[in-house]
Amino acid sequence: MQNKIYQIYENIIFYCLLLYGLTFLIDTKINFVTTAFILNIIFLFYFRKNHPLQLNYTKEFKYYIYIIIYFLLMIFLSTILSDGSLHNYKSRFISPLLGLFTIILFPMNIKRIFLLFLSFSIPLFINALLIIYQFYLGNTGRPTGFCNNHYMFLAVSNSLILPIILTLSLHKSQLSKKIRILLFFIILINIPAVIFENTRIVWLELAIIFPLIILFSIKSKLKAISLIILLAVYSLSIFSISPSSINRVSSIPDTNYANQSNYERILMWESATKMFIDHPVSGVGLGNYYEEYMSTYRSPLSRETQGHPHNVLLAFLSETGLLGTSGYILLFIYLYYYTITNYIRNKDAFSLAFLSCLLAFTINSLTDSIFCQLGYKGNTALFWIFTGLYFILNKHLTISKINN
């Protein structure tokens, strides 16, 4: 009886994670990650006597936890010193981390990991079909399908998920042929959707990362280059039917005053830099950026009112100073080091997939504030979840039953 209850409870938690994946593009009233985390804690305490679980981790994951603690501690310290908002600290830094801890405290295996990743991929695929249909109906602005979050939320989700899908679709040793064909088909459908969404930084990052993934995934360089050319021709043909997308491409290098989007970013970066120079140690405080920007640092040439500087590094520097930024930089340096060394040693698809995801996320961070910032809690939670799954796949983290 206890075993049956144990299995039911375990399945409920996993179904919560699957529901989160299936609904992550829409703003649901139920937070399935938080629900899964709470159930997981109850699960661990209730079954600890009859079904005790043991968390096994290597020094690599141990270092990662230490870095996360340092990251959170430095942000907290900067918040206290600069009279920042503790509510913002909880909402932007603590809450999204529940995704990571839910993953690492749950008995995961390869099958569950793949099903969970598929639960994120399928909605992205269906949403891409809807975006293509919206474009067909005449929506040539920023179509988002059924995603009712901000269009940048969808853009960051593309950055996190599509590189992983492409990588897995090209590695024969990891998945069956039918699954790989499905994943590659998802890529082919998402390419026009991404183009029609008109988010320029996503175009740039995927134009860099997709060829790298192909070159590192396919041994025959002739086949790899041929596939890159085919995808380039396919993408250019999609651009040719979308005049608004062509105009967006042509505006990328334009930094004149007439190009409000680009010019405004330069002004915001200058303002955030001045904010950091004036408050170098602990910044202006979490939640204080907008007030400081509007009252003191906004340029007379500015035509927008923004709550962040559209750059993750400058967002950390301006709000948390060198204290908080040191944690952020250390966190990503370690993730790059860990992933690159794993890939050099093993040449595995999972390391290449996560490295591509990490690189896309970093490039996106150059023109928007997408990590631990207002409005991007969902993307941050998704990032933590994928990070936890990667550590599990590399067997640097396992949770297993203890046989009595």
Q: In a nutshell, what does this entry contain?
A:
With 404 residues, the chain is mainly α.
Describe the structure.
Strands 1-2 form a two-stranded antiparallel sheet. The model has no long low-confidence stretch (mean pLDDT 90). The protein has a domain at 60-98 and 117-253 and 307-401. With 404 residues, it is mainly α. It has helices at residues 2-23, 32-46, 59-81, 86-94, 98-104, 110-136, 151-170, 177-197, 200-217, 221-240, 243-250, 260-278, 289-297, 312-346, 349-364, 377-393, and strands spanning 53-57, 397-401. The longest helix has 35 residues, at 312-346. It contains 16 helices and two strands.
Beta-strand residue percentage: under 5%
Per DSSP E runs of 2 or more residues, the count of β-strands stands at 2
Widest β-sheet, arrangement of strands: 1-2
What is the terminal separation in angstroms? 17 Å
- The number of helical runs is 16
Poorly predicted parts: none
